Amino acid sequence: MSEFRDRIEALAERARADRRAFDPPADPPDEERAVRYLREGVGEVVSVYVEARTDEFAPLDAEEMAGLERAANDWLELYARCHGRDIDAEFTVREVAEIVVMDTHDLPDAAQLLTGVPPRQQSSEK
Questions:
Q1: What digits encode the pLDDT tens for the residues 32-49?
Q2: Most buried of the four, 17, 43, 75, 76, by CB within 10 Å?
Q3: Which run of H or of E encompasses 43?
């Protein structure tokens, strides 16, 4: 058990509560709510994961990793539902963190790459 256990459990509980309370938008997308799930949810999961990975004395156990992954996937599914799409997110927390930290440096861009929501705009230039 790591020093991150309480934070991870709180994130997992918040994600479950957000899932239970979710009411689909009448006229998707609800971009404001979608971005809130990313910033206050996925972003916090990535922060805990990165912090734990940079602290050599705080390895995360299997239960903690599962809690982080479930929370990140719950919020990514809610993000997609805010855009009128149902997805079954099954990303590892490492995948999510690497896309955010190494590739995009931007939560909405990372979520779009992971979920395909919203669809990427096709360029009309050739």
A1: 999 999 999 999 999 999
A2: 75
A3: helix 43-54
Q: Is 23 within a domain? A: yes
Q: CB–CB of 62/1 below 8 Å?
A: no
- Could you give the count of Cα atoms lying within 13 Å of 70 in the half-sphere of its Cβ? 18
28 located within any domain = yes
Domain-located, residue 120: no
Judged by DSSP in three states, 13 sits in helix
Whole-structure pTM value: 0.91
33 located within any domain = yes
Supply the DSSP string of 65-97, one letter for each residue.
Answer: HHHHHHHHHHHHHHHHHHTT--------HHHHH
Q: Which has the higher per-residue pLDDT, 57 or 66?
A: 66
Amino acid at 123: S
Domain count, the chain: 1
> What does the CA dihedral 9, 99, 90, 116 come to, rounded to 10 degrees?
130
Show the domain range for 57: 5-115
